[in-house]
Design a protein that fits this description.
InterPro entries: Tet_reg_excision_RteC (IPR018534). With 276 residues, this protein is mainly α. The protein has eleven helices and no strands.
Amino acid sequence: MEKYYNECVQKLEEKIKELTLEVDDPILLPQEVIVLIVDCLSKLKEFVLKRGFKNKQEEIYFFKKLKPVILSKLIYYNAIYKIETKKPYGNGKTIKKYIDNELAKLKRFFDNNLEFYKYYRTNSIYLDERYFVRGGYDVRLSIDTYYFETDHNFTTSHDYKVAKIIANDLIQVYLEDQLNNKNQKKVFDYSSLNWTGSKTALTELVYGLYSQGVFDNGNADLKLIAKTFECTFNIDLGDFYHTFMELKSRKVNRTKFLDSMRDTLIKKMDEEDEVK
């Protein structure tokens, strides 16, 4: 199950990255990505219905940890499409008001689902059989209307809500990033240094430095750090929070670049010691 799932996700993410490089239109890109995600979910559904689950634990793991990752991408890109198509023309204040209203919607979802947020983010498991097993539901557990309109062979009462939580985190970063782009000036007008490594590697570095608290005594904003690196090294990290979520989902070697950098530095030190 997990092997097939990982292959599906990897292929999907590769196609999304290719499209991101090819399509620069914030309205056209979500449309094309959504087609890819729907196709991926369709194939995954076909596989699950044909194969089934070995036991209840595997079923819970799939609907709690695996399916929401792909479904969250669908929710995210659909939301971005709506945000961009409805964005008003006007001055900075008009745009800021619009984005603030979108952020308020995310806050309302959080407030309305606070108990489930606590359950999910504390990695609780005592209600997993009620939340993430097919064939049963309890309306007292705050079920979205969406659930009653779906195929219950491929849906549980709360897998969509998990996906919504993941997607909303990404949408919030997207909206806040737009506000920062409006309000922040570039640190440098021009830099001769160009980052020639991967965006994923630089994202690892940014989060590593942020986690160490090496800027402004640990009080620097993550987005400001990322923007500074972008300006300094002439690179667009895109949705770096999304990239970080992908790093977190790695099963092994989640800090591949940082580990490699450490090993390379130690090797260089050892080689210089041998020369002396």
